[in-house]
Amino acid sequence: MPKTTKILIIEPKVEFRSRLADELDLSGYQVAQARNPELARPLVEANGFDLIVARVDGLCDRCLLFLEEIRRLQPPETLYIILADEISSANAVNALRFGAADLLSGAANVAQVVASVRMALAPTIERKRARQLFCCLSVEERSFTFPSAEESLGPAVDLLTENLTRAGICSQVESRLVAMALAEGLTNALYHGNLEIDPRLKLEEDHDRFATLVRERMADPRFARRKLTVRSVLTPEEAVFYIRDDGPGFAGRRSLEETRCPERDRHKGRGLYLLSSIMDDLMFNDTGNEIRMVKRATRPFAGIPLLNV
Fold it and tell me: Can you say whether the dihedral through the CA atoms of 276, 278, 282, 288 is positive or negative?
């Protein structure tokens, strides 16, 4: 089976580089090698690597600039293991700031580097395998009922978006946008639906009055007992989200028409315009207390072949 996890070794010591490449190759990785940063540049420019092992002369400013240049040319999820001839507290801090998965002494042997590579890649490989299993997805349905509490919103968004990339619906970047849209929808349902707080208070930047009303209505059983009902339906073609509050509803259809004009939305708040910009389809029920949001799949992220690692 093809080796799909790609590793680049940047190492001036020929024998060490060769032995490390052989061990990683035997472990099922696709390996590229370069003796120094200059020779590594064409490889970095032409390929996206899952992990890069680089030996640097300490972690001086020049070395960090070289690593930053590599990172700009690589996917954001690329991992880095740094071999530094000089290990110090300052070097460790610099490695952490850079985002290295591991910092090893320059005296580390091949077995130690291979072990570090496996440990660093383990979560990435598990995510890939999970995403591969989602290629078999027929339908996944979830339904939640949350209390009217601000601390429920973040966990709700996490639950609703955790499988979007695995199922091939969208990329990680797009998934973050979907999370933003869901957070906006849940926030609107909580504050303007269940708590019935006029959105114009935010537009008028009357933050003190808004915060006071939130506290008062959270303490009022008439509002506090209301729930947020959230349902998601995930298929290979799309993700559909339903957010429903227990409030009286509003003129949702008319507001959706107005989102076609961003200038009009400026006077009503960013909410619906943001949702319509991120999602492929929006629809309110007749009451106006439930919104249906659809994100259709982007096919390049589905159907990934099985890994051999």
Answer: negative
